[in-house]
Amino acid sequence: MNHRSLSRAGAFAALLLAATATHAATAWTTDAAQSRLEFTATLAGGDFDGAFRRFKADIEFDPADLEGSRFRVEIDTASADTGDADRDLALKGADFFAVERWPGARFSADRFVALGNGRFEALGQLTIRDNSREVRLPFSFKPVADGTRAGLAGGTTIRRLDYGVGQGEWQDTQWLGDEIRIRFTLQLQRQKTTSP
Amino acid sequence: MQLRNTADTYGALAKFLHWTIVILIIAQYVIIEAAEELPDGLEKLTMITRHKSIGILVLGLALVRIAWKLVNKGQPAPVPMPRPQRIAAAAGHGLLYLLILAQPISGWMMSSAANYPVTFFGWFQLPALVGANEAMHEFYEEVHEFLFTALLVVTVVHVLAALYHHFLRKDDTLRRMLPFGRRRAA
Q: Which residues make Cβ contacts (< 8 Å) with residue B79, sequence separation at least 6?
């Protein structure tokens, strides 16, 4: 490679970096071991909790750059853990998450509103099975350690039948309630950016 | 028929509690055996949920029954019988009370260990007795089944003893707990 093409490649790389830098707010790595995605459902008038053991959260968020912020969350629905093997198996089945057809649920948000006091609201699309719905997700963002780390926590309530979670007899909400409360806590580590 | 026990017979409340608990425990067995036959699904879930609510009802009624027994201190007086027999009867009754309390509690623990809520007919939720733990769930399930067998054995002895009193000793032991039992004319 001669000198000219090398500098051209360098200029292109710099351009690319600049383009990414202007596009995205601060990118964060989610510490999976310290992060949780949980839900509470109602069975015959009583609550029980569960959690998704595997999910991937790509978070680009900067309170000073809400325009450039975005969430991309992929949830492995087969990792739903409710503490009972029979129930977990049922959740993977065709009547609920149907993990063989739709192995993942997605949440994707590009619009953010500041609510003040470190609180925000993400407006995005939640997709479970083949159904998408607009979801407003309030959350708090707390940077720590000079902004190198941050905690992101929030939750919302969705209706499982909006997403077809519960087919056939499970559309009956007398025994398995329609409303599902979701909450999450993410521990974020700021991604190292190579300055141009 | 009066509510409280008297010196020689059980009152209406003690009889009501005794026989209601008998009927509920039989229903519990029928419900859970039928549920076990069903494939996993809403119908099975519904039946198990009813079984749990009725179990909590039995627990509550058993506590009321024990409290009522304490209120009616010593009444009715034991039918005259030899001391060893009286001790055996007291021990048998104590064991019955213990098993009737332990049975729903073990079921409640079983549900808690499996992270299933226990409610009273959906009116209110009872707190989890133990943390979610699948291995412990299996253990409490064994305990729940063992206690049922123990309850069945002690109940058979209880029934045989009552029949022995009624037909062989011809005393009022059974009669005074029967819903519309009349005392034998003295």
A: B165, B171, B172, B173
